[in-house]
Structures are given as structure tokens and as C-alpha cells.
Amino acid sequence: MTIRSVSQLIDQHNVSSVVLEIGDEYFVFSVEDLLRHLHAGGSSDATLAELTLRKMTCVFENERILTAFEILENNGDRYLGVVDSAESLVGILTDTDILSAVDPTVLVQKKTIGELVTRIEPVTFTADWILDDVLNHLQKMEDSIIVVEAKIPIGIITTKDIFKLISAADTTDRPLLEYMTSPVITTQVSSTIQDALAQLKTCHIKRSIVVNQENQLVGVVTQSELVGFAYGTWIDLIKHHAGELKELVAILDAKAKGFEKSSLTDPLTGLGNRRMLDKRLADEIGRMRRYDAPAFSLLLLDIDFFKHINDTHGHLIGDEILKAISLKLMSVVRCSDDAIRWGGEEFAILLPHTLLQDAVEFANRLRTTIEDHSFVEQIQVTISIGVGQFSITEHESQFLDRVDKALYLAKHQGRNRVVADTSSGPTQHLVMPI
What we know:
Number of helices: 14
Protein name: diguanylate cyclase
Keywords: CBS domain, Nucleotidyltransferase, Transferase
Domain CBS: 52-112, 180-237
Helix content: 25-40%
Largest sheet: 6 strands, mixed
Distance between the termini: 65 Å
Domain GGDEF: 294-423
Oligomer: single chain
InterPro entries: CBS_dom (IPR000644), CBS_dom_sf (IPR046342), Diguanylate_Cyclase (IPR050469), GGDEF_dom (IPR000160), Nucleotide_cyclase (IPR029787), Rev_trsase/Diguanyl_cyclase (IPR043128)
CATH topology of the largest domain: Alpha-Beta Plaits
Number of domains: 3
């Protein structure tokens, strides 16, 4: 069969993959394989025999569900074959099946989807973008392109939509407006995990598009992230058992630690993320108040004219610059410091036991280091930095607001400079650019 014929078959049966039986082995052709083939310049008229298909891992039908989940996680596969004692295929197991088996009452019902939402900005474009120009953002089953207008999601294009285009022999040279599904099914940031699970099951979708009260896009929580969270919450229940369940507890503990580390790390740069900064700020503020410890300072920094870099050189080059700057930050901070990707092209550095003047000196050295560095394709990059020292009498949000305003002033006054908020008086411009 040709890839187009398979796509038509998949579309007719409203599924996302097909299984091929070759001898006594089973292989899968899925949306990921289709996208990988198309991104490599392949034709939709090619046959399955011309592709390198993935062999499907199989388990016996009496295997424990936790073992099956571990195999899916470790192999990075989305499909697990289930065979009987004669090793004949009797079913397919996916994340969707695991999610359907989760009883929402097991979850912490007070926990909201906003606490799980990914802090990395989801892939968004305006409706006038051409689909062919953004297809590279669809690589995996749960990937999607969110179409926004004034930060409000007005449409979505998923990998399943691409299957339909291929099966219909349609082109991809028109604006996103002509392909997107609208309106978008959204989840309020205040919704509970239980509500989000119910929505995924009822609407047969693979992601929660999370919005705030103004219906502006906040982030995306995928089906697999919810599955991972669900398994993490089972740990407390299973710990009530002993003996034969000891091995399962160890597996789940390791899984939970992996999820925790993932939730505190920015996947592009390897730095900590906004959640990590919130956690570390709470630690430092608690240390000061409990032990009357020395104050700490915070740097908020922003890459100057980063949008121009993306527009001129492309987002891939922009990502390389983000990673290069992250390496620079990690190379100059102390072991006790924390380098954070605040979001987009903004970063934060938390400096424990550091007073304002020392933090300003460090910020200016960092600014000079970035300015003198030769980045990819000889692109010159500068940064603007806001600096502040925490006062024991203020709230965390007030402190962040002060430092953020100092950063804004640094950019407003011409960029490539450091501005410090003295906290005892008006914001002062302490360091001028060279």
C-alpha cells in the first residue's frame, strides 16, 4: 500500500496508526513515521515496503500494567503489542488506554491544571502563516500548532489533521486559517486535574489547551504528562502496602523523581525553569527569616532585539543562541547560584549571600562577557539586566516586580546596560554600557 492509501485507511477508521504483520513479527506505521518521511522529502505515493518500519515491542497479556508503562517509557514508543500464550497479537496498549484506566478520584482533587501546565511557550502562529512553513513543528503524536489572535487561541492544527490532508491529496501551501480546527477546546487554568482528565476522555483529545480568565493562552498539558502525573500520585497509595509491593514502590519512586526533575528543568537550555526559581526564592526567603541570614540578590536579564534575530536568521539560530547564552551563564555562576530560563529570551540568576553592589558588579561582568562573545554566524548579542536585593519586609511578588521594572528601565534607556533597584529609594541607573 502507498502512504496515501494507508492515510486514507487511518482516516476512515479514525485511528492514528496501522500494524503490519510480517512473519511472526509486528511493525507499526504511525503519524510520527508519516511526518518523518515527509520532512525528509519523501513522497506520499511511496509504498510501505520502501520505508524502514519500527518493530513493535510485545508483552504477554497477563503482564502487570506498571511493567507495561515502564516499557513504554523506557523505549520511547507509543505502542505496545499485547500477545497471548501462543504469541499471537490480541491487542495494542497506548498512553490513551492507561489514561482511560485511571480513576480520577485517585488524584489530588484540589490540584489544578495550572500547576502542571508547561512553562515553555507552546508553538503558536497567527492565522496568516502558511502551513508548509510551520510543518516542522509537528513531529510527534501530541504535537500541535496553536493559532492565536491577540494571545487568544482561535484554532489548532494537529498531527491527525496532517493525516487527513495526505489522505485527501491536499496541498499545504495555504494559510493556517484554511486548515485549522475552530473553535479550540480549552481548559481554564483553575480547572482541576479531574476536570482535565474528564475533558480528554469526553472530547477524545490528546492535550489540554490551558487559558487564563481572559482566555489568553497559558500553556499546554499533554496526555502523556497527565498519565505521568497520575502514576506519580499512586505512590502514596502503594506505600501503604509492603512485601510483594516493595519492588513497585521503588519503581514509582524513581519515576516520580524523574518527573520532578523534568518539571524543574527547561528542556531547550538545561537551565532551571520558572518553577525552579519559585522554589529557590521560597528557600532563600525562608532562610533569611528563620536564621536572620545575609540578603540575596536577583538578576533578570533579556536578550536585546531577540525577535529581530529570529526574524532575520530563523528560530533554529535563535535556539542556538539561547543555548549558547545558557552555557555562558552556567560557566560564570557559582555552585551556590541558580541560573534560570525565565521564559522566551529572558533569564534569571539568583545570587544567595550577595548584596546589591556585588550583584551589580557581577551583572556588568556578565553583560560585557556576552557582548564580547562571538555567537553562531558571527551574530553580535547584547543583554539588558535588572538587579535587585531582597528586603525582609517585602513580599516575593513585590521583589520580582521591582527587579522586573529595573529590567524594563534598562531596555527603555537604550539596552545593553545594567540597572539596579536600590529598594530604599527610586530606581537608579548604576552601570552604563561601554
